[in-house]
Write a structure and sequence with these properties.
Layout (H helix, E strand, L loop, with lengths): L1 E8 L10 E8 L10 E3 L7 E9 L9 E12 L15 E5 L6 E3 L15 E6 L4 E9 L11 E9 L11 E9 L5 E8 L4 E2 L3 E10 L5 E11 L1 E3 L3 E7 L4 E10 L8 E12 L11 E9 L5 H20 L6 H17 L6 H21 L2 H14 L9 H28 L11 H49 L1 H10 L5 H4 L2 H16 L5 H21 L8 H7 L15
Length: 578
């Protein structure tokens, strides 16, 4: 159906003359394309695209509803594929959807012969007049990377009226170009590291594929690698030109950063970002890729660490059992135990585990340091023996103590250095930035200072203890001598101003006691009468002294020993090996 439309333009203002006539042909068609091509944008991961083809029921005489049918009658590929190895990888397929009896797969070799029913005829549902309808054509495009620039098809369809087709000789025909849209779609894929596992300090490569999944050239592509925990030599890569379907492998040289000394494992998050500034309608969903991995601290392996831990702790326990034979076994227990803690550090990757093991190693060193100061007891005991005028083992006790302090400080300071060496690895690997160096040196310094402080404290305690015990022993001897001569003791007390009248009751008795005491001192060989008299007064003096010293217990050296913690004052326990 067609008609001519004429529009005449006549001016209405005075002084304007002439007319203009516009003529156009209006044609009504049941199927037409309005010279609009159906372009398909290749979408990543989407191989089937729906294309809509408009049509309408335009009756000639009967205005009732009608059920049309449609068929694909001719196909033509828009490009000639050259230098293609496998043509089947570039195949297209078409399916008409929404038929009255289902869908129909269309063959690219389809043809239509007038007077014969088309092979791929699809019956459509009944539709009302002058109601716009759409044919749904499912197009399966080649899968990436088999995208050929400008590829597509020209499809010719025929629409048949159910009663007017006259044995398929009367129809409405229209052709449509279905082709890939000319766009560039750079994408990132296959981001990976050349090593699956890596430890701090390892050098390796990060790789990613830059692919143009579109049908046009891509210009000025900036690809940037960002990583937390990795050192990147050159993070930015610039690709000036990338052809359709081309793939470019981008590599970066990276190095695993050293970890904090107390950390066993650290997560690494890496991402690659594509910035395509000169690409129109770029699909940004494939412009970013990321990967997560772990940087491990140096370690001998969990199995090796566990076995070494058991061996070291068993050896340490054996040494502790042998301390009674030789004190040097205690130092061996210190070293074996610290080595065991060093291997235990690598058993678990949690941060709190490493910190806990470090403090446990420090506590082990300090505990056995305090128990390793037995030599000071021997030296100070020998020194107090010298003060009492007895024979001694050492001639210069100050030199012996100074040497013992220096030797113990050096011997017991070395284990923490070995512990740090096992933690850092060989050669040592540690992040030198931030708080690593201060905390490492601070921890080592605190442990060594604690060793020195414990040794100094032990020496001071032994010196104070044995000094007090010696003074107590001397005073006990003096008290025993004084108690052995009561007359002399009372005379000294009276000389010091003590009023003895309250004890003896009268000055006469006191004078008689004093004269008798003086006579017993001056006269060594007296008569029996004088001795009896002196003995009488001695008995009275002792009775009075008992009243004064009531409640005072007899003291000896063993009692002092038990009250002061069991430290030996005699020669017991002094080894001839010292």
């Amino acid at each position: 159906t067609k008609s001519t439309v004429k529009i005449t333009l006549t001016p209405v203002e005075a002084g304007v003359e002439g007319t203009v006539q516009l003529v156009t042909l209006l044609k009504m068609s049941r199927m037409h394309n309005n010279n609009q091509d159906q372009t398909i944008e290749p979408m990543d991961g989407e191989d089937i695209v729906m294309v809509e083809i408009p049509w309408m029921h335009i009756p000639k005489t009967d205005a009732s509803n009608a059920a049309y049918s449609v068929a694909l009658c001719n196909t033509e590929r828009l490009t000639v594929l050259e230098n293609v190895a496998e043509l089947q990888d570039y195949d297209w397929s078409f399916t008409l959807m929404g038929g009255a009896t289902g869908n129909t797969d269309l063959s690219t070799d389809a043809t239509c012969t007038e007077g014969q029913e088309p092979a791929n005829l699809l019956a459509l549902p009944s539709v009302p007049v002058y109601s716009p309808q759409m044919l749904n054509l499912a197009v399966e495009v080649p899968k990436f990377p088999h995208i050929y620039p400008g590829d597509g098809w020209n499809l010719t369809f025929r629409l048949y009226h159910p009663t007017e087709h006259a044995n398929y000789t009367v129809y409405s025909e229209a052709s449509y170009d279905v082709k890939l849209e000319s766009v560039a779609d750079p994408a990132l894929e296959d981001f990976m590291f050349t090593q699956k596992t890596f430890t701090e300090g390892d050098s390796f490569e990060a790789r990613v594929n830059l692919i143009n999944k579109g049908t046009a050239l891509a210009f000025n592509l900036n690809v940037t690698l960002n990583c937390e925990g990795l050192l990147i030599e050159a993070p930015l890569h610039v690709s000036p030109l990338l052809f359709p379907g081309a793939t470019e492998e981008i590599t970066w040289k990276v190095q695993a950063a050293n970890l904090d000394w107390w950390v066993q494992e650290q997560e690494v998050n890496c991402s690659v970002k594509l910035i395509a500034q000169d690409v129109y309608n770029n699909q940004k969903s494939n412009d970013n890729v990321s990967i997560t991995s772990n940087v491990e601290s140096w370690n001998p392996g969990v199995t090796t660490s566990f076995v070494a831990l058991l061996v070291c702790f068993i050896v340490s326990l054996i040494f502790l059992r042998l301390i009674g034979q030789n004190e040097n076994f205690r130092l061996g227990a210190v070293y074996a135990g610290v080595l065991g803690f060093g291997f235990a550090f690598h058993l678990m990757p949690m941060v709190w585990w490493g910190v806990a093991i470090a403090f446990m190693a420090a506590g082990w060193i300090w505990a056995l340091t305090w128990r390793s100061t037995h030599e000071f007891q021997i030296v100070h005991e020998d020194y107090q023996r010298a003060r009492r005028g007895e024979s001694t083992l050492y001639s210069d006790h100050k030199v012996v103590i100074r040497d013992a302090k220096r030797q113990l400080s050096i011997i017991l300071a070395i284990p923490i250095v070995g512990f740090i060496a096992l933690v850092l690895g060989l050669p040592p690997r540690m992040n030198s930035e931030g708080s690593n160096l201060p905390t490492l040196f601070g921890f080592t310094g605190v442990v060594i200072f604690g060793v020195w402080l414990l040794i100094w404290r032990a020496n001071q305690q032994y010196r104070s203890l044995y000094g007090k015990l010696t003074e107590l022993e001397v005073k006990t001897g003096m008290l025993q001598r004084d108690l052995g001569d009561p007359a002399k003791l009372l005379t000294e007390l009276a000389t010091d101003g003590l009023d003895l009248s309250s004890i003896f009751g009268s000055e006469l008795d006191l004078q008689t006691f004093s004269d008798s005491s003086q006579a017993s001192v001056e006269t060594q060989d007296g008569t029996d009468e004088d001795e009896a008299h002196s003995y009488q007064f001695d008995q009275e003096m002792l009775s009075a002294l008992d009243d004064m010293t009531e409640g005072i217990e007899s003291m000896d050296f063993d009692d002092a020993e038990s009250d002061l913690g069991g430290f030996s004052l005699g020669n017991e326990g002094v080894s001839t090996d010292v």
